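Inputs:
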Amino acid sequence: MAAATIGSYTEKKIANQISNLIKRISELEAYIKTPPCIVIYGVMDIPSEFATHDWKAHVTHILNLNNINPNWILSTVNPHANTNCPYFVNIQFISHCVKETVYNILSSYIATNEFEGVYITKDDM
Amino acid sequence: MTDWYKLAENQKLLDDIDILEQDLQALQRRALSPPCITIRGFDKLQICSMIRPSAADLPFKDVIHKLFMMMKIPYFWIYSIEPSRGHAYHLPSTVNIYLITDSIRMAVYIALLQYLKKTDQKTVSVKLLT
């Protein structure tokens, strides 16, 4: 009887661990397949001479200011294609490690300058 | 007898789960960290022998810059460079080069192997860290 109880406890434990592993593998798979991306919200509230004219020049200027290698960037996307002053922009990078570095640089830039209403997010694991 | 068999089977499953757990953690680390190539014997590296007989006269980052130019590889493929042994600024014996993606790492690795073979540098070796 006791052996049966132990056996059933172990089987439950195994089932839980396997289902946990499957979940984490799916998460990792999704993370690897997702293009590495950060989103800057309130991007036009960051002061720059380009702010109201050309959003792409504005974003490029911010990246240049922070010495971010332009070759590390795959694309910058304004989800509101019809406006020159998007509230947020997506920046895609060539790899996750590059994205992490840029995220840290931009976070610290935004925090240091205390830009109001500006914040960034990234896809995270 | 059956119970013992079942217990042994369960234990094997638990051991397999442990191995899978370790593999998953390694994959997670790999997904998050830049892939690396190690150059051993970096202080013996000869580059551009017509211009400069030895890399010893240059800061090591300039040597890598020159090396990448020789191999016609874009320098922005490098994520970061760290001398892992030897504290002399000009002459670390081992250098880790972190690349921006896994596929780029393979391309750089093959280019380095070919370069070392072409220039017949037997004291320098490259290794992929996994």
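The longest helix of chain A spans residues 2-33. Flag for discussion at group meeting.
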